[in-house]
Amino acid sequence: MQYIELLYIVSTVLLIVGLRKLSSPSTARNGNVIAALGMGSAILVSIFSPMANDQGNLLYIFGAIAVGSVIGMVYSKKVEMTGIPELVSVFNGFGGACAVSIAILEAYKFDASSTIGLMGTTYMALFIGGVAFTGSLIAYGKLAGKVKDWKSGISSYFNLVWLALCLGLIVYQVANPSAYEYLPIIILVVSLIYGLSFVWPIGGADMPVVISLLNALTGIAAALAGMVYGNMVMLLGGVLVGSSGAILTILMCQAMNRSLINVVVGGFGASATSVA
Amino acid sequence: MFEILDYLKDHVLMINLLIITIYLGFEIISKVPTVLHTPLMSGSNAISGIVIIGAIILVRQADSSDYLTLVLGAVGIVLGTINVVGGHAVTNRMLEMFKKK
């Protein structure tokens, strides 16, 4: 069992090959299967690999995986073809929420020996995962017609100020880790609100691009969490999704003849001014 | 400031890998045809569920009386599994539709 971690390398290769095959039409289905195998083997290794301070808790792990698998299968079978983009958005939001749940728990484990790098990485995972979570839920709501478009002239200024607040709080917390006990929770709430205010002013027609962008963010959150745990599969898989997701977002904008800035700041399909 | 530099110095290998993988991600995707945009987004969304591994490690290391970590960690695993399993299943459905065309 002690060599089981070597299988992580196999998982990484499967993820890379799967993503490559997903991006050409004739091999896309195989690519999805290969990526799924890579995921499965990575999860198995993470459950069975030897670990310091291992407490077992396998009942919780297998129970949670069983519940999640059933929910995931049921909804992906049940959804109408036209509803797939909004379901993808919800799934992406759940990935972000998973990053949030681990980052907030890790944040409360810090002590005097924790390095600035470790704390900064964890809080960035918390922030980016939180934005991906609430942002994806708004994107879902817009696609499903449950959230109406709304934009006011000040929303882009509000977002800039709010982003500065998020990053400022993180810097303060990393510099003074034990100043306020509740600051990690406040950072979490502020990040979740930023996800809402970031996506809300963007027009419903641009949601596919936004979902792709939020998907890239979830990947980056996963990569940051991977740095926290020193886990190579998480790091490489997350970075792969982050970088390929960023390029995909730009390609999707180009397909609509717009620039990414125009989509994010322009809101409401204000395509008249786009020069992309 | 030096603490940040120390952190970077201790993770040189990781940072190198990071840069190579970023470039790899760019290269893999750069020639994707427009029809595959949505399936690819869905497929890479499933891969971003890899964050579930963090939740599994967290629960494995949690003390058996630390119910906050166990419960919140288990919720994280449930959400991550939905992302992974649902993501791959829905991507497969989308690509099935392609085949019939």
Automatic annotation (TrEMBL), chain B:
It is found in: Cell inner membrane. It catalyses: NAD(+) + NADPH + H(+)(in) = NADH + NADP(+) + H(+)(out). It comes from the Bacteria. Its EC number is 7.1.1.1. It is a multi-pass membrane protein. The chain crosses the membrane at residues 12-30, 42-61, 67-91. Residues 15-100 form the NAD(P) transhydrogenase alpha subunit C-terminal domain. Keywords: Cell inner membrane, Cell membrane, Membrane, NAD, NADP, Translocase, Transmembrane, Transmembrane helix. InterPro entries: NADP_transhyd_a_C. Pfam families: PNTB_4TM. The transhydrogenation between NADH and NADP is coupled to respiration and ATP hydrolysis and functions as a proton pump across the membrane. This is proton-translocating NAD(P)(+) transhydrogenase. It comes from Reichenbachiella carrageenanivorans. The lineage of its organism: Bacteria, Pseudomonadati, Bacteroidota, Cytophagia, Cytophagales.
